[in-house]
Amino acid sequence: MGFRIASDLINAGASVLMFDIKPMPEEIPGSSEKSLYVQADLTDESAVAASVEKAVELFGGIDYLANVAGALWFDRDKSALEIDLGVWDQVMAVNLKSMVHTTRHIVPHMRNRGGGAMVHFSSTQCLRGDPAPQDAYQAAKAGVVAFSKSLAIQLASDNIRSNVIYPGPSESPMQDRWKANPEARAATAEAIPLGRVGTVEDMSNSCLFLLSDRASFITGTELLVDGGLQAKP
Fold this sequence. Notes:
By secondary structure, the chain is α/β, with parallel strands linked by helices. The protein has one domain (about 1-170, about 195-230): Rossmann fold, CATH 3.40.50. It is about 45% helix and about 15% strand. The protein is built from seven helices and six strands. It has helices at about 1-10, 45-60, 85-115, 135-155, 175-180, 180-190, 200-210, and strands at about 15-20, 35-40, 65, 115-120, 160-165, 220-225. Strand 4 (about 115-120), helix 4 (about 135-155) and strand 5 form a beta-alpha-beta unit. Helix 1 packs across helix 7, helix 2 (about 45-60) packs parallel to helix 3 and helix 3 packs parallel to helix 4 (about 135-155). It is globular, with a radius of gyration of 18 Å.
């Protein structure tokens, strides 16, 4: 999702800092002057701070932030009654604290520019319980919503907007398990009112809308991008 959002922003004319623990993709669009890729860990605040300063040096400022990083560890994340608390802390660091790192180092630059917009990715998983729980992931993603709302109120006077996207079940590397179990993917699609799972394009389109001036009067809210799943009784 993050790479698709970055690519769409570049194609729309933005200069983009991409930050990921994975190696740099080969197919980054546009010229090298339009993007900066940093391979590092978002849970490392010093690395985030250094990368933000480098991006400001290259691009002149920062107007937008998309917090998309996430980790869903089906094999290790389980009920809070039995989860290894080291795993709990790791999941919280990736899914929530990383967003604190990016936000605290980027907001001063948005203020310098007279405003900005940010979108934080949560998950519909945090809106319900689950008989096969991933409690750390769900709690972290619920925290993202609270964090975004707080930012929206804190930063409104700075003309900085903060919103959340709830992605529904979507085709992305986080759901690579569907490759080995196409029946599960088909069953998921059948349960969604629009009859299909989401795509990274769906998530990017929604994110770019919330970042854009077309959403200039939208802050402190959440957008469900789930094909109608949460509307079902």
